[in-house]
Inverse folding.
């Protein structure tokens, strides 16, 4: 067959070209496949994490007067709740009493059935247990006898056998069946857990309105990997169960709520896949296109010959298809293997599903198309070409202007990139946001191409001057050679610049993301390590090895009007430096300025914006707070605080710790600890060992791992690793591979130059001039475009960041690597070309 | 007077084993200043191969070649006109002709002036701004001749310089080459199959199956 | 009257490069009967190659029409041109007739396949008559100038064309190798093939049935 003959010839005689095109195609296919693996691995881990975070999937509450009948799905345990008037204990001759409390009756295997629901802090779990806070209030330890006030019944007594923590108190004590969007009710302050038999003995006789019965369920965890799909399944099943119960019970869907949060993260992960992945894939395809385009001169000659022999377009198409097929057959498996290796090393899974598979297939198709195209209609190289139409009409400038316009419009209207209405299965994504970066990419590419062409065309005298140090007397000839090659060279330089831009924008985005994740963790945890509920003093703490400083933070509660808010007391002289307060946490001034107001007036108070609006506060207004023990303390409103270490997301107050102490406002002190560089978890372990199990110690590393529901924890590491690795690969391919192919095409020129008597140095000047041109354009234009893109990405994707960054972070080390590798690729290409050019020129001359 | 180039028992074999082609073998010859040699011989007899060896563009597989009369680096001092197309595709005609002058260190303006003069000498001055791909076969061949004329080679080696020229042009080109060789006191070696062209040169060598016979008596 | 194989009617072809215009053909009219051998001569740059390119339908004339065996070649859809060319025309261009990644024999095969008339016997016959039997498996880059020219002719004749267009087929050939080439062309003509040869060679001039002389793009 003609095709077999043709292909065999190509494989035998054009091995380099076929190999290079296959490599380009492999890269183009590998990227979406690897990203797709990230995508499905990320989704899977999000679903898994959501499932893991929820010890009790559903809480089915029996409605008053009804009796739950029939089997419940999955594993279920009955839990009874009773409201009691208070608990009381005797300690050191003192009687301690709590306010209203909740008593739960749980089966003996409850803790084992729902691991994570109870955490035993002291004693044994077999008998009556107290929640940590309640035990503290009652000064109770295992063995303490606690009296339960249970009007209208007489008091009863139980002997405590252990103290537990209830990590999921919020959902455990939720109001099942509350309408979506309702204020979550705060968990009770005092909790007593009793073995089921004890509970029934104590509370069966209570009036019906003081008791409720729930069934806690763990359902089948074989759920779809995608959190959105899992959410739909779980929420549907919950509703289904409710319908089946016919009003006898309502379902509190904890798992659904967790998946609901996860699907938003998943959508963001998908967006990141699109925003960061698409340019990379497009670039890889473009590299393939350019690689396939190389060898155009020879291809044009071949086609002219085929035409002379009567070949029709169909013949060209068939031959081109055969060649493309050959390249695809070599390149695609290599690409998929590359992706599989990436997947296996980064997330130890090489699963490729649904949309990612489609994306990979699409990329393969497009890559084949771009390989096919130049094989179909080659263009002779050294033609005097007209200015391309896009350049005449200034398409590049229009695209950039359009990008800025879209960006301005979208950011002005304060759009939300991802909108997840609570409880509704549909998510809406504002795809307009893509337009701005996409237009910027396109515009920047064309602009760089225009600059390169300008430099090589009208800028030829300038180029001649610039290459003079390299080429000396030959500079006019070198400049002319470069100028006549401006199409191909311009494309190579643009490609290299885009690869650099891709690396810069991706890495800046990623570094900023990491920076904010750290900030978020710091904000949540307060310091590198935080210790609370301890009697340790600042001095004692400072003596622990690994600790650089311990900053006291007083915490209590106070009523603003009817609203109970967290009240923090700080030491203004040290707090800013010790906890790295960011300017973004305050409004109306820098962190230093606002905290400075606390320092200058003892009764100053910082409040949240919401409070300012609610109470129409103006600077200097007096604010009276009622403490939890009923005292009233006067403050002056001195500024607005939006975020604060360890503070909740909504309203809270910040004041001087010394003033609070002087006014005897209730509260206890937490210490925010900065380490001296020792790993936070090491310091945390030391603190626990030294100050006992009752102290509450947390470190920033574990917090960063734990705050799973927040967007910052979308596991970007994998995505980033792939992106950065491929960015490097692209940079090398764009600089090295394309240059080498270009040099191969100009072998003839070099061979002839050598025949005409050029010295090795003179010959090298042709090559180095080209290398320098591509290198300088790539770095200058690429860095500029990359920076602009990174800024835009950070702003467009600001929803991903929490808190929003005040400045972008630049990963100099990685960028240094990119530059170094790119430079090495350029150097390598140059040296390779020089070595090839030094071969006896005859072999080359004969071969054309 | 030492020869410009001399070779001793030179052979050139392409490939290895069964498919090896012995293009040139056992050739011993020398060229001195003032030599004007026409190299004839059937197609495939090894003329081009020998010319490339003498120009230092290829290395022999056996025997030795030396350029005692030239500086250590022969390439710049040997003007070569190739059998096939040999212009640099990205440079226009004038730039192509000026290139060897620039390589030799000539100033840009001077190089251009001499290039245009050489183009005029072969009758293609009107094509100075054309690109090689826009030339006819004969025009390209004359530009290649002009490129040698513009430089100042000590040894001129021309491989079928008139293959695509009509006889009037062919005579003109050979006469030009002879004249330039005389002016530069250089040696001239022309491979040709055209007896008329060969007839204008005083000495005749003949290749047959890779072997060289010098001083063949001329019979037209 | 013998059948007319090719008719060129008032052909014009201007090349534009920048603001310069080269008038390569200015109204050339030519008719060649089946079995007739016409030599197109003229000084270099007079438009010979351009004329052959137009006759083969590889380029469109700016004015005038080309007819091949009574069918119009110029100004029609490329696919029809290609079909006509594959079946009726054999073309030997001035430089580079062979596809580099195919061997000599494969190049001939390719031409036969494109014309839809595969014949191993004819291929081997052609290569033998042109003295290329020993080089059938060689890559084009390893051929001597004359061998490449002959291989090009073998490819051009592979499809038993009704019209053979040969651009300088003997430019690289010595008298000894020229003879079999011309003999082969004569044999071909005797089977009814019309032949148009662009050449400077006096031998070709003598060999042709008729000589058409071009000067400055016109028939003299
Ligand atoms: N692509 C082109 N662009 C511009 N001018 C061209 C182009 N091709 C040919 N020419 C010009 O057209 C004229 C005729 O060229 P053509 O190749 O037909 O000449 P020719 O008679 O075949 O010459 P030769 O005997 O040297 O091969 C020449 O002046 C040539 O420079
Ligand atoms: N690279 C190569 N590999 C294999 N064989 C080669 C190579 N180059 C040349 N030959 C063979 O060497 C022999 C001599 O070739 P050369 O080009 O020197 O001949 P020539 O005398 O110049 O012929 P012509 O007059 O046809 O140009 C030929 O048979 C040719 O096929
Ligand atoms: Mg030769
Ligand atoms: Mg011609």
């Amino acid at each position: 067959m003609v095709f077999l003959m043709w292909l065999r010839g190509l494989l035998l005689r054009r091995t380099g070209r076929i190999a290079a095109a296959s490599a380009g195609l492999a890269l183009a296919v590998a990227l979406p496949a690897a990203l797709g693996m990230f995508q499905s691995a990320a989704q899977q881990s999000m679903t898994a994490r959501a499932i893991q975070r929820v010890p009790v999937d559903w809480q089915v509450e029996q409605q008053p007067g009804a009796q739950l009948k029939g089997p419940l799905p999955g594993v279920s345990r009955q839990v009874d709740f009773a409201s009691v008037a208070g608990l009381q204990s005797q300690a050191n001759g003192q009687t301690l009493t709590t306010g209203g409390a909740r008593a739960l009756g749980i089966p003996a295997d409850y803790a084992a059935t729902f691991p994570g629901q109870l955490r035993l802090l002291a004693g044994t779990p077999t008998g009556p247990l107290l929640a940590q806070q309640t035990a503290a209030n009652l000064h109770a330890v295992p063995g303490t006898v606690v009296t339960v006030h249970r009007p209208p019944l007489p008091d009863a007594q139980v002997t405590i056998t252990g103290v537990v923590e209830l990590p999921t108190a919020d959902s455990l004590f939720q109001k099942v069946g509350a309408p979506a969007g309702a204020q979550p009710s705060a968990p009770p302050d005092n909790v007593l857990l009793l073995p089921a038999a004890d509970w029934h003995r104590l509370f069966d006789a209570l009036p019906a309105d003081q008791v409720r019965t729930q069934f806690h369920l763990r359902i089948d965890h074989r759920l779809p990997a995608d959190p959105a799909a899992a959410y739909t399944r779980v929420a549907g099943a919950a509703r289904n169960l409710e319908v089946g119960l016919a009003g006898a019970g309502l379902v509190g869907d904890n798992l659904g709520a967790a998946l609901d949060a996860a699907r938003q993260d998943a959508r963001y992960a998908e967006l990141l896949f699109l925003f960061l992945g698409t340019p990379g894939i497009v670039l890889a395809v473009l590299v393939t296109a350019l690689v396939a385009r190389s060898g155009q001169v020879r291809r044009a000659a071949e086609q002219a010959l085929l035409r002379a022999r009567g070949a029709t377009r169909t013949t060209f198409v068939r031959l081109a298809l055969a060649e493309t097929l050959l390249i695809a057959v070599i390149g695609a498996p290599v690409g998929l293997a590359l992706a599989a290796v990436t997947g296996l090393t980064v997330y130890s899974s090489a699963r490729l599903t649904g949309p990612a598979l489609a994306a990979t297939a699409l990329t393969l198709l497009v890559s084949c198309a771009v390989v096919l195209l130049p094989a179909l209609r080659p263009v002779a190289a050294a033609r005097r070409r007209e200015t391309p139409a896009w350049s005449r009409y200034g398409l590049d400038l229009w695209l950039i202007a359009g990008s800025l316009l879209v960006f301005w419009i979208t950011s002005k209207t304060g759009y939300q990139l991802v909108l997840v209405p609570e409880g509704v299965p549909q998510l809406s994504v504002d795809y307009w946001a893509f337009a701005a970066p996409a237009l910027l990419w396109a515009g920047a590419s064309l602009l760089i191409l225009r600059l390169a062409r300008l430099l090589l065309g009208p800028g030829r005298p300038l180029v001649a001057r610039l290459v003079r140090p390299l080429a000396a007397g030959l500079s006019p000839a070198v400049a002319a050679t470069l100028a006549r090659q401006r199409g191909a060279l311009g494309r190579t330089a643009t490609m290299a610049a885009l690869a650099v831009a891709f690396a810069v924008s991706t890495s800046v985005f990623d570094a900023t993301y990491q920076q904010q994740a750290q900030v978020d963790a710091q904000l949540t945890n307060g310091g590198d390590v935080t210790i609370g509920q301890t009697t340790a003093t600042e001095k004692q703490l400072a003596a622990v090895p690994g600790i650089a400083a311990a900053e006291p933070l007083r915490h209590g509660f106070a009523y603003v009007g009817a609203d109970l808010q967290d009240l923090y007391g700080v030491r203004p002289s040290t707090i800013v430096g010790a906890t790295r307060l960011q300017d973004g946490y305050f409004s109306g001034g820098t962190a230093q300025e606002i905290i400075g107001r606390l320092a200058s007036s003892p009764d100053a108070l910082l409040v949240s914006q919401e409070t300012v609006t609610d109470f129409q506060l103006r600077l200097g207004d007096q604010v009276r707070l009622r403490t939890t023990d009923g005292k009233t303390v006067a403050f002056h409103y001195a500024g607005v605080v939006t975020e604060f270490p360890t503070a909740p997301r909504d309203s809270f107050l910040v004041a001087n710790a010394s003033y609070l102490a002087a006014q005897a406002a209730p509260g206890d002190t937490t210490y925010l600890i900065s380490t001296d560089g020792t790993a936070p978890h090491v310091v945390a372990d030391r603190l626990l060992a030294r100050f006992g199990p009752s102290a509450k110690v947390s470190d920033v590393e574990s917090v960063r791992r734990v705050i799973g529901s927040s967007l910052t924890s979308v596991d970007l590491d994998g995505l980033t690793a792939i992106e950065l690795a491929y960015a490097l690969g692209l940079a090398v391919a764009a600089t090295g591979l394309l240059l080498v192919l270009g040099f191969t095409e100009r072998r003839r020129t070099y061979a002839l130059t050598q025949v005409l008597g050029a010295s090795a140095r003179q010959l090298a000047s042709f090559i180095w001039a080209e290398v320098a041109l591509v290198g300088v354009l790539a770095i200058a234009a690429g860095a500029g475009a990359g920076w602009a893109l990174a800024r835009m990405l950070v702003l467009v994707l600001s929803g991903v960041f929490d808190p929003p960054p005040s400045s972008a972070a630049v990963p100099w080390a990685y960028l240094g690597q990119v530059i170094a590798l790119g430079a090495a690729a350029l150097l390598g290409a140059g040296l390779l070309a020089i070595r090839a050019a030094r071969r006896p020129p005859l072999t080359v001359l004969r071969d054309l | 007077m030492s020869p410009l180039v001399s070779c001793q028992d030179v052979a050139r074999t392409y490939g290895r084993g069964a498919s090896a082609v012995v293009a040139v073998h056992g050739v011993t010859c020398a060229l001195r200043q003032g030599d004007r040699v026409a190299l004839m011989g059937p197609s495939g007899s090894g003329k081009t191969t020998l010319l490339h060896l003498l120009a230092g563009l290829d290395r022999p597989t056996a025997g030795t070649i030396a350029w005692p009369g030239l500086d250590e680096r022969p390439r710049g001092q040997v003007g070569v006109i190739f059998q096939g197309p040999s212009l640099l595709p990205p440079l226009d005609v004038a730039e192509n002709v000026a290139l060897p002058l620039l390589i030799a260190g000539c100033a840009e303006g001077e190089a251009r002036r001499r290039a245009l003069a050489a183009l005029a000498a072969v009758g293609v001055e009107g094509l100075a701004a054309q690109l090689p791909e826009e030339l006819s076969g004969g025009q390209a061949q004359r530009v290649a001749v002009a490129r040698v004329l513009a430089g100042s080679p000590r040894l001129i080696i021309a491989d079928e310089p008139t293959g695509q020229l009509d006889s009037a042009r062919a005579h003109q080109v050979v006469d030009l080459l002879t004249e330039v060789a005389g002016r530069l006191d250089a040696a001239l070696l022309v491979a040709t199959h055209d007896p008329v062209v060969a007839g204008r040169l005083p000495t005749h060598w003949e290749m047959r199956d890779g072997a060289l016979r010098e001083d063949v008596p001329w019979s037209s | 009257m013998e059948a007319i194989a090719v008719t060129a009617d008032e052909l014009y072809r201007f090349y534009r490069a920048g603001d310069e215009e080269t008038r390569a053909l200015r109204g050339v009219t030519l008719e060649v009967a089946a079995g007739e051998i016409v030599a197109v001569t003229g000084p270099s740059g007079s438009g010979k190659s351009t004329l052959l390119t137009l006759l083969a339908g590889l380029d469109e004339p700016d004015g005038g029409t080309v007819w091949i065996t009574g069918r119009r070649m110029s100004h029609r859809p490329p696919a029809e041109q290609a079909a006509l060319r594959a079946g009726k025309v054999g073309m030997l261009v001035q430089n580079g007739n062979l596809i580099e990644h195919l061997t000599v024999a494969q190049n001939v095969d390719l031409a036969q396949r494109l014309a839809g008339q595969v014949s191993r016997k004819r291929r081997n016959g052609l290569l033998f008559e042109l003295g290329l039997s020993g080089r059938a498996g060689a890559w084009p880059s390893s051929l001597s100038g004359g061998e490449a020219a002959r291989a090009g002719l073998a490819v051009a004749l592979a499809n038993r064309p009704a019209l053979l267009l040969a651009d300088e087929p003997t430019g690289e050939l010595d008298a000894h190798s020229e003879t079999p080439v011309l003999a082969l062309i004569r044999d071909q003509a005797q089977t009814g093939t019309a032949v148009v040869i662009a050449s400077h060679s006096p031998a070709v001039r003598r060999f042709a049935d008729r000589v058409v002389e071009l000067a400055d793009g016109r028939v003299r």
Q: What stands out?
A: Residues 48 and 198 of chain C are 6 Å apart (CA to CA). The beta strands of chain C are 4-17, 20-33, 37-41, 63-68, 71-72, 89-92, 163-167, 194-198, 210-215, 218-219.
